[in-house]
Design a protein that fits this description.
Length: about 120
């Protein structure tokens, strides 16, 4: 993989955008295809890794693990290893992650409404 030149113009522009644009900041934290989907599924409560895999069957193990680690590093998800035999891990939304629930629910509501309109438009054409 190519190394990122930290003092490049592109990196400086990205830092400026993160500081000045709230949408850029949000997309940096929850952007990508799988992160919002993972967060959406965690809105209903703590989930074990296997439960997330079943809830999101299209995601690969590598991507799920990678995004869970990123969400944890960004402070949106809490990973808790349970000290039982056999041990297992649960994932839950952090306080910051819970603040995204209204946003994620609004996205879901928009999708339900818009998908019906979109389906009607496709049937009409």
């Amino acid at each position: 993989m190519a190394q990122i030149k930290e003092n490049s113009t592109i990196q400086e522009n990205k830092r400026i955008a993160l500081d000045t644009c709230p949408v850029t900041y949000a997309m940096e934290r929850i952007g990508g295809y799988w992160k919002p989907i993972i967060l959406y599924h965690l809105m209903t409560g703590d989930k074990r890794y296997s439960e997330l895999r079943k809830a999101i069957p299209a995601v690969t193990e590598k991507m799920l693990i990678q995004h869970l680690k990123q969400l944890e590093a960004d402070g949106l998800v809490i990973r808790e290893a349970k000290p039982v035999v056999p041990p297992y891990v649960t994932y839950s939304l952090s306080k910051s992650g819970r603040k995204l629930q209204l946003v994620l629910q609004a996205m879901a509501n928009w999708a339900f409404e818009d998908s019906e309109v979109y389906a009607e438009q496709r049937r009409a054409s």
